[in-house]
Amino acid sequence: MGKGIRMVKGWHGWLGTFNGVVLITMAVLPLAALVVWALARRRRATGSMALRMSLAEVGIVYGTVPWVWMIMLPGDQAGAVPGRVSLVPLRDLLTIVSDGGPLTATVQVVGNLLVFAALGFFAPLRFAALASVPRILALAAAGSVVVEAAQYVLRLDRVSSVDDVLLNAAGAGLAALASRPWWPTAAPDRPSRPAPAHSAGGA
Fold this sequence. Notes:
- This protein has nine helices and two strands; from the N terminus they run αααααβαααβα.
- It has helices at about 1-5, 10-15, 20-25, 30-45, 50-70, 90-115, 115-125, 135-155, 160-180; strands at about 85, 160.
- Strands 1-2 form a two-stranded parallel sheet.
- Helix 3 (about 20-25) runs antiparallel to helix 5 (about 50-70), helix 6 (about 90-115) runs parallel beside helix 9 (about 160-180) and helix 7 packs across helix 8.
- The radius of gyration is 23 Å and the shape is globular.
């Protein structure tokens, strides 16, 4: 860890490297907790489920932005090489396994699964309309497509791969399943009141 901290120098070291993003994410954790507390305290008077809503909102941002930030970091030849696209499912994964071995493939797969995992876990807790695994899958897939397209358009020296989209969506779906016990439940239907009886002669 000490060696990693020494490597982070200047604005580029903090904002333009994986180590810098990780250290910033760790450093702002107390601030994120403070924001959760402040939002929950502000909502307490409204009678809403203050803590859960606040934690979900902050969790979506805190758990998603650093991952998107890291995968949008430019490569060594950013701007000098054209964007690259891989549209054949599983081809990139097989290439990683064959070239880098199981450990490299595991790190790559887990990293992609975590990109939108926080969104998948917390979004159904905050937004009742998203309390559905298919909707979370669709949302994460759409977000991943936007990120992959941005990598291509900005020429970040990265491969825009369909495998990344599939893994990002799968990670969000698995996280949504993990949070399912805490999804808000619909309020029970209230029994309808019988219509008031009218006298035969009318009013």
